[in-house]
Amino acid sequence: MCPTTAFWLNREAQYRAGLARIEEENRLKGWTSWLDQLPVKELMNQGVIPKCRLIAKNKPGLVKKLLQFFGVASPEDWQNYYAGMEVAFRRTREEQSDVGAISTWLRLGEIKAEQLDSPKYSKPKFEKAVRQIRTLTVLPPEEFEPQMQKLCWEAGVVLVLVPSIKKAHVSGVARWLNPHKALIQLSLYGKTNDRFWFNFFHEAAHILLHDKENIFLDEWNSGESWKSEQERQADKWSREFLIPPEYEGELTKLKSENDVIDFAERISIHPGIVVGRLQHDHLIDPSWMNGLK
Question: Whole-model pTM?
Fold first, then answer.
């Protein structure tokens, strides 16, 4: 019996598929050096990609998994998109921060944000949400986190928490995913509530005050000399939002934990935030009153 047309068409399809597989394998093998730019082991530990030994046999498969993770077709596309953001990173510790780590941290936040279909951004609603969130600073994380995420979401701002990645050294980022959806991403870098709340309100200030084109990626404890005017504005806004200027004169009078607790209660914020401000302004030693944080 002679083979049918369908038989030959099927064989042709199998042959073409085989060629495509070989072509893809060769292409992936040629891209394995890209892995050196990425925190591969960290992503394995977080379960983003399967754990395996970093040997030649496994590297093409890892390249494929990471292309899928970043949502790009090639390392060149990744370079154009993520590494192209480098100028916006405004990194302060060039020898310790790298684009691979930062882009990975950003992508983890993007993936979380993509899963949340929020309403369109409303500046009046976000201003109201931020005022309400300030009242949450006295609550423990398990109570304030879901409330602040809900308040942000209702105003068109997605708030995601993504643990810091080695060599990224980022505390947070404010950016626009599209003209109607903003993202605030925090890393919990430092893991104390004074830093957390200052960072959140700093990023909120970028959303409220600044344009939608820039990516504001911030580090904690970075020097003043590198900061743009927009970063200084966000710092000032956060400082004054947490402790309004009319109360600043009282800070020098806070000499004991009881003083700090009473002051914090009067202005309705957590005393740890007051301690952080006193330490930052060199009004007390960095080792003092840390038990209140």
Answer: 0.85
